[in-house]
Design goal:
Chain lengths: 390, 239
């Protein structure tokens, strides 16, 4: 028998209460891991942005379009290696009208050159390039909608009502090499879209995406691009992909601040649950602590027992929480978020650092929660403690 | 100042060793509800090495307080306590804890065994504070259980033992680190007559065969009769 063994026996003394506390800590840990993963995934979307990719949009808002000829001018600006463009299509599949996914008309010849972190099998890409009504869809979206190569897909767009229904054929399915790219998007030929527009809406593009030759000079090149259009009717705003993604997600920042606060509140709740259990245990064992002190155990040793017990419960709850969180987040809700909110959370996986932090915090908060009970236990007068009936 | 008295008619001779426990002018008082309660008053006491002494007296007379002071569980308000030549009233909490671990064996009325530990683990408990290796600790604990006749119950938990057996385990725990003094606070108070006799016989054996000094608080005259010296306390003073 050892002092550690004694501490462990005490943990298991009231099994029901210990199990409830461990489960309580585990639930709090799962919630913490989920919320931190949410924040981390959101940050990933901009952190993993490609540094040499420049986004140019209408200066007022990205909802407003740019003239088609702007792309040619951008391509002629020094340090721009390649440029493409896209239009937000805002359509839904009437068969799945509750499913939201990003769909865009893109410049077929250049789009996948700019987005070389998207991987389309060469044969499928070739098919698509020669198919005016072809579409390339993300693997996550294809799996969700049950689409396969060769399937016909009809979409309805509120932004482009010139056709009641837009018919496409799935020519390819893309995967990605990077974490900043949504795997649930739907791309088709901008030309198909443009050809169907009335004269007043023709030759308009949503935004321009370029690759620059020096990733460290993206900011200066962005200024140079905007300067070209400074004196024109439609001015532009160019940002690197990271800033563009951040501005696109800016609306979410208040929500994410709230999520941040909630994750801290969860930690406080975890500490209170642990503190309550530890305080109850100390109160019940006052007499035993008196006996231990009478036998020669010091106040510090008694405090160590209490801290050891709290840390064990906290750690056990943390481990259980991590074991639950992985399948819950990665297979369950994480996959759902990638499929349904891929623009915001393209890569929803529990970062190892969040796991380590959760485990560390569960243990640390156990120790913090035990601080007052341990202090009380260590300061007990032996004669008073021995008089206390458990 | 009260003199220690050996009652007439005690069956055994008083121990003739050196003075092991010496109290001089010891007073103890508590504050309770704004009132100062004097529990012990200017008490002098000498207990010789190898003595078996019983402390008797009515409830509230200060018996347990006196025992707690001798055992280093409490501190006097004034006066000095010297045990085996060491002043314990001026020791720090840490020093006192270490001193208790090496010098005193405790036997409580309600046994006070740890319910999560088996009999042998309970006995081993005081040895956790020493540098004795674990296999040696276990051997010593088993030896102590053999002394109290409970070797065959070593893997039993307290809830699986009778009151008398629990108290014997507590006595084994009290002697496992070979203390010079055993203090026993109403060791038979919760036991039936037969179990009480067994415990008292065991304490006698520890006193006579192992030479342990024993100071025992009891209400029970027949328990006190086993002691070599009976002291009576009344209103905080030895009669």
């Amino acid at each position: 028998m050892t002092l550690t063994g004694l501490a462990v026996r005490n943990v298991l003394r009231n099994t029901f209460r210990t199990v409830l506390t461990v489960v309580g800590v585990a639930v709090a840990t799962v919630a913490f891991i989920f919320l931190r993963t949410l924040i981390s995934s959101w940050a990933d979307a901009s952190d993993f942005a490609v540094k040499d990719r420049l986004m140019t949009r209408h200066k007022i808002t990205f909802v407003m379009t740019l003239p088609r000829h702007y792309i040619d001018e951008v391509r002629n600006i020094p340090h721009i290696k390649v440029a493409t463009f896209a239009n937000w299509f805002g359509a839904k599949d009437p068969k799945h009208d509750k499913e939201f996914f990003a769909n865009m008309g893109v410049d077929a010849d250049t789009f996948f050159k700019v987005y070389d972190d998207m991987v389309v099998p060469p044969a499928d890409l070739d098919t698509w390039l020669h198919d005016p009504q072809g579409a390339i869809v993300g693997d996550v979206l294809a799996a969700k909608m049950g689409w396969k190569i060769g399937d016909k897909v009809s979409l309805e767009s509120g932004i482009y009502p010139s056709r009641p229904q837009w018919d496409f054929k799935v020519d390819g399915i893309y995967t990605t090499k990077g974490r900043s790219v949504d795997r649930s998007s739907f791309y088709f030929h901008w030309k198909f879209l443009n050809d169907s527009q009335p004269a007043a809406r023709k030759d308009q593009i949503g935004w321009i995406i370029s690759r620059v030759d020096n990733p460290n000079d993206t900011a200066n090149i962005a200024v140079a691009v905007d300067k070209v259009f400074d004196e024109k009717d439609t001015q532009t705003l160019s940002q690197d992909e990271r800033a563009f993604t951040a501005s696109f997600l800016a609306g979410l920042s208040a929500v994410l601040t709230a999520v941040n606060i909630i994750s801290v509140v969860i930690l406080v709740i975890m500490m209170l649950v642990l503190g309550n259990t530890i305080a109850m245990g100390v109160r019940e064992r006052t007499n035993e602590y008196g006996v231990l002190k009478a036998l020669g155990f010091s106040g510090q040793q008694i405090a160590l027992f209490v801290f050891g017990e709290a840390a064990t419960i906290g750690f056990a709850g943390g481990v259980l929480g991590v074991l639950i969180a992985y399948p819950f987040v990665e297979i369950g809700i994480g996959r759902w978020l990638e499929e349904n909110m891929g623009q915001f959370f393209p890569y929803f996986r529990v970062p190892p650092m969040v796991t380590v932090t959760a485990l560390g915090l569960a243990t640390l908060l156990g120790l913090l929660a035990a601080a007052i009970p341990a202090w009380v236990a260590s300061r007990l007068r032996v004669v008073d403690a021995l008089r206390r009936v458990a | 100042m009260s003199e220690a008295t050996t009652e007439a008619g005690t069956k055994k001779e008083s121990a003739s060793g050196a003075i092991q426990i010496q109290l001089r002018g010891v007073s103890k008082s508590y504050e309770r509800g704004g009132e100062r309660l004097k529990i012990l008053s200017e008490l002098d006491l000498d207990v010789r090495e190898g003595s078996f002494e019983a402390l008797m007296g009515p409830s509230g007379s200060g018996k347990s307080t006196l025992l707690n002071l001798i055992a280093g569980l409490d501190r006097p308000t004034s006066g000095t306590i010297t045990i085996s030549g060491k002043r314990i009233d001026s020791m720090s909490e840490g020093e006192l804890a270490r001193w208790r671990a090496n010098t005193i064996g405790f036997v409580f009325q309600s046994y006070n065994l740890l319910p999560v530990l088996t009999a042998v683990e309970n006995v081993e408990l005081p040895l956790l504070l020493t540098k004795v290796p674990s296999n040696e600790r276990r051997k010593r604990a088993e030896t102590a259980l053999r002394v109290v006749g409970l070797e065959d119950r070593k893997t039993h938990y307290p809830r699986q033992l009778s009151g008398g057996q629990e108290q014997r385990v507590a006595i084994a725990r009290a002697i496992v680190n070979d203390p010079a003094i055993i203090v026993a606070d109403e060791p038979t108070g919760d036991l039936d007559r037969q179990s009480a006799d067994e415990i008292l016989a065991l304490l006698e054996k520890l006193n006579t065969e192992l030479g342990k000094s024993i100071v025992m608080v009891t209400h029970d005259p027949s328990a006190a009769e086993r002691a070599s010296v009976i002291r009576r306390l009344n209103k905080g003073a030895l009669e």
